[in-house]
Amino acid sequence: MRAGRFITFEGPEGGGKTTQAKRLIARLREAGRDVLYTREPGGTPTGEAIRDILQHNKAGEPICDEAEVFLFAASRAQLVRTVILPALARGTIVVCDRFADSTTAYQGYGRGFPVEQMLAINAFAVGEAVPDITLLLDVPIAIGFERIHARQQELFQDADRIEREARAFHDRVRAGYLELAQRWPERFRRVDATQAPDDVERAVWELVSGVLP
Ligand SMILES: Nc1ncnc2c1ncn2[C@@H]1O[C@H](COP(=O)(O)OP(=O)(O)OP(=O)(O)O)[C@@H](O)[C@H]1O
Ligand SMILES: [Mg+2]
Description:
5 strands; alpha/beta; 13% strand; five-stranded parallel beta sheet; 213 residues; binds magnesium ion
């Protein structure tokens, strides 16, 4: 077993991944744990540049779906080598807001690329950085989008490129996540993210407590 623990949050848009990742970080810190929060795509200078290309079309041209796969993988590979693995080796608990399963769910199930191919690309990108636990914050697409629209109105934000995908795309993503959770039941934990934030937080804390050193 590694010295630290690697915890990832996954799930469709608006499930509360960022909200809960931050709450978990706060709880872990209160408990005196050494923790690190990071997000995907991003988390490194290279990754943040890639994030701008992916989410806001910074390069000024449409990104083909194949290139999108490798941009996510490149961001992830850099994050793993420069941030995640060194932190885990030091005994830090790493909490990542989205990780490799997002590629399988969005590019595999969502866009329709072969799932096994996405898994192979992920395996190359992440090496030994396989999460100890993956919290799947599962929420019906309609509820997730209601939340996101409320957040965007509050912050005067526009929908990003992936959020603008059709409803059917997001339905496939959610179903894909549920399939992944069945395929790796020892790693995945599905959390009912329709609950109130405090209830989701409690459920997450109980699950995470079980894998802490
Ligand atoms: N359990 C909840 N019940 C109601 N609203 C919530 C809940 N959790 C989060 N929210 C609100 O829903 C919005 C989306 O939450 P958040 O940004 O954490 O989701 P996310 O899964 O990170 O979304 P994205 O996929 O866009 O990154 C926020 O405005 C947040 O305050
Ligand atoms: Mg988020």
